[in-house]
Write a structure and sequence with these properties.
Radius of gyration: 33 Å
Largest sheet: 2 strands, antiparallel
Helix content: 55-70%
Distance between the termini: 92 Å
Number of helices: 18
Strand content: under 5%
Structural class: mainly alpha
Length: about 375
């Protein structure tokens, strides 16, 4: 991206001064491009499990960039596998200059130039799009089958015929969670899930032509809580797969956000908190956020109130256990030192005894 941008700036040196003033290098083009990236960056800044959407969002990003400078008939009907094999530098796959998507501001500025003058900035824009797309094709996890299969967890993918194959591949990658004989049970449960009539309100809400999807873990929490007539949960093994996969991070935004929260929790005076105390404070913070930071609206159960009352006693109990463990460790260390000292004395005694025997032999 930097190379293409640099070349584009250099190409602008030959443009008239008026055009430089109205259209300063690739700024307008980059601004148009930023709108494309703002969308996917905004999606993955949300505080919810999104790993199931990662592959699809990356695919859509690459396709959107390709639509900026490639012919429509080249892209139409192509699968991702075929698109990744395209040679983007070939002229026969690229669209004409007048069809290049550069944004309305850039088009207005280009319209004031002659045909020959337009070629220079358009070439730079095309190079910028090519380099950007190639870079993303190499860096994004577009070939990752595991991430692609995770898309089956989306509510809209419930009826997909190949869904059971995706579930099988996911389970085979998670053998530390599933026993070999559980995979067959998992597939049976998923087929039952596909046949279930899930209420639309569990996955999304509709307002006119706008569809707003609920958080994926809220949807699956309701699905996995479904029970049969005996009161048993219908999807106990499928629940293991859903929980294991939705716990995977889709980026580093959650990690950075977690570090920021931990920094606020610790402050400047609470630097000696134990890991248990920090986790407890984080749990409180997460609970408050889950209620929209509206503390009066939170539900206070008897168990929660009892935990608050017993917190001080539990704290002292934990300190006492830590003290006892520390004393036991010190006693163990003392015993080990005493054993080492005795072994050393015995060794020295044996060496001294051998020397005395050797002296007697020499004297005789």
């Amino acid at each position: 991206m930097k190379v293409a941008s640099s070349n584009f700036y250099k190409s602008c040196d030959n443009l008239p001064e008026l055009f430089k003033f109205m259209f300063p290098g690739p700024i307008t083009n980059v601004f148009t491009m930023s709108k494309i990236f703002d969308k996917i960056l905004g999606v993955f800044q949300r505080q919810e499990p999104l790993v199931h959407s990662l592959h699809d969002e990356c695919t859509q990003l690459v396709k959107t960039l390709m639509n900026q400078f490639l012919k429509k008939d080249v892209l139409e009907g192509k699968r991702l596998r075929d698109l990744l094999q395209l040679d983007l530098s070939k002229p026969d796959v690229q669209c004409l200059d007048q069809d290049l998507e550069v944004g309305e501001s850039a088009k207005k500025a280009l319209a004031k130039l002659t045909v020959d003058q337009r070629k220079i900035p358009l070439h730079g824009m095309r190079s910028f799009l090519q380099v950007t797309t190639k870079y993303l094709m190499n860096k994004l996890p577009l070939h990752n089958v595991f991430l692609r299969d995770l898309n089956i967890l989306h509510p809209e993918m419930q009826d997909v015929e190949s869904g059971h194959r995706c579930i099988r591949r996911l389970a085979q990658k998670l053998l530390q969670i599933f026993k070999p004989d559980e995979i067959a049970v998992l597939l049976d449960e998923f087929k039952v899930y596909q046949q279930k009539n899930i209420p639309d309100g569990w996955s999304h809400t509709e307002k006119g032509d706008t569809i707003t999807y609920h958080r994926i873990h809220h949807y699956w929490a309701k699905v996995l809580n479904m029970r049969n007539q005996s009161g048993d949960k219908i999807f106990p093994v499928l629940a293991k797969l859903v929980k294991a996969t939705l716990c995977l991070l889709h980026g580093n935004a959650d990690v950075k956000r977690s570090l920021s929260v931990a920094k606020k929790v610790l402050g400047t005076e609470w630097t000696l908190l134990t890991a248990e105390s920090i986790n407890g404070l984080r749990l409180v913070d997460d609970a408050v956020k889950s209620e929209g930071e509206n503390i009066p609206r939170m539900t206070y159960s008897k168990e929660m109130l009892k935990s608050v009352r017993d917190a001080h006693r539990e704290y002292h109990s934990r300190l006492e256990k830590m003290k006892q463990a520390d004393e036991a460790r010190k006693k163990e260390q003392t015993k080990e030192k005493e054993k080492a000292r005795k072994r050393k004395e015995e060794k020295e005694y044996e060496q001294k005894k051998r020397k005395q025997i050797n002296r007697r032999k020499v004297a005789d």
